[in-house]
Amino acid sequence: AIIKATHNKLLIDIIEKIADAFMEYRIKAFSVEGNISHALEPHGRILEAFKKRDVVGGQTEMINHLNTSLDDINNVVKAR
Question: Looking at CB atoms within 10 Å, which of 6, 16, 31, 78 has the fewest?
């Protein structure tokens, strides 16, 4: 929403391409049984860290989640 509010065509085009690529990634990653829990459970832990204002815990949970997400998509790519 912030980028769209700038009315900067280049930024809008970039964010739309990123959003499209991310959607494709999510469809592929979530097509593997069990991967959806790799998104839901970590998001809950990240949210709890935010609620507690636990910066280090939030960072740790986010890094762990990103690493798991990377593993998930790498496994999807390798399986193809």
Answer: 78
In sequence order, what are the residues at sequence separation of 6 or more whose Cβ sits closer than 8 angstroms to the Cβ of residue 60? 49
Taking the model in full, what pTM does it have? 0.65
Please, are residues 61 and 13 in contact by the beta-carbon 8 Å criterion?
no
Rounded-to-integer distance, Cα 29 and Cα 23, Å: 10
In whole angstroms, give the CA distance from residue 74 to residue 40.
19
Look up tokens 């930024």; give the residue.
11
| H helix and E strand count, the chain | 4, 0
